[in-house]
């Protein structure tokens, strides 16, 4: 049989068309649309942001995502993840994990390296990838956003009563006391922070202690350093705030409790994370345009320095997930450059990709201009040194601090007992679970 040239060309065109239509169809409707289950945000606003970003991926791929909503108590979310993972459950495909968790969870998380293009990891801030790297070299999470503890203050009230933003804790106390004495609003509070015994209190107390030159609980070798005169002085100072510039309810408060009170206009100063910035700038916000941000104060003297606890969240894939490829695809979408730019604009959440910090549009963004100097003061909690024991270390620390704040024990006695307990935890044989 002789096949003329025209027929060959026609046949090629026809096949090309068939393939193009098939590929187009396959891209719009995946051959096997899967449903992923993801832990998304920690309630309220963080969850809204997460849901919106995930929806874009669902529309692009045809896959669906079911969301598991966490709580504001990061420690409770951790407990739930530990139980699920220890049982090798497949219930969750993607986990949003705190910056302090990789050392505790890495045994159960997928090594992402085989799933990523070779240059992908190099695009993130190296310290964050190092944080998400397990001792065997596997990279178990992609950084989604960075957090740092900072001071929010009411510019309008400070101006009205003739005060500059405070650089030291003593100044903050003086300014808060003066404004509280002179301002007519009986609901106004001086300084709000997170005093409930949980991970947030560890961040706050670490900041008080480190800003006084008292170290970060453990040193870089993992030795316990927390029982020292600066740390004692820092806890004594914070205890003096309660009932004077800080209301008693702060001893039960997490981030959102303090944010809501500050947002309603009932506080002069507040320690919190960057997410608050976006919420207080909305048109409905009673404090819109009235708030400034700055590094947290330091203690007087040569040993004092400005510090803010380093926080932030990454996305990891459950090692036992039935859909590792699709899960990695979704976390790549949620940590992509465009997602990060979108997230800082929509939610004042700080990027984790190097490119964002070099991008002209981003660097000139007013919120970034204010937050950049604060980021330079970020200090890590001792999660790398304590590995999978971190939560036990942190729990002992926040309980010891809480006893002092509640007036049940002196700072000196509490830190001495803490030192003994931490040494016992760290010296005990290492059994990961
Ligand atoms: C924020 C931080 C996180 C920290 C938590 C404490 O979510 O990003 O790192 O552990 O607050 O409440």
Q: Write the CATH architecture name of the largest domain.
A: 3-Layer(aba) Sandwich
Summed up, the helix count is 19
What series of H and E elements makes up the topology?
HEHEHEHHEEHHEHHHEHEEHHHHHEHHH
Radius of gyration: 25 Å
Structural class: alpha/beta
CATH superfamily of the largest domain: Periplasmic binding protein-like II
Shape: globular
Overall helicity: 40-55%
Q: What's the level 1 CATH class of the largest domain?
A: Alpha Beta
Instruction: Tell me the major beta sheet.
Output: 4 strands, mixed
Bound ligands, each once: alpha-D-glucopyranose
Strand content: 5-15%
CATH topology of the largest domain: D-Maltodextrin-Binding Protein, domain 2
Number of strands: 10
CA-CA gap between termini: 71 Å
Low-confidence stretches: 1-28
Number of domains: 2
Task: Please tell me the overall pLDDT.
Answer: 90
Structure notes:
The chain is 47% helix and 12% strand. It has 433 residues and is α/β, with parallel strands linked by helices. The protein has two domains: 215 residues, Periplasmic binding protein-like II (D-Maltodextrin-Binding Protein, domain 2), CATH 3.40.190.10; 203 residues, Periplasmic binding protein-like II (D-Maltodextrin-Binding Protein, domain 2, 3-Layer(aba) Sandwich), CATH 3.40.190. The longest helix has 24 residues. 44% of the residues are buried. The N terminus is likely disordered. It binds alpha-D-glucopyranose.
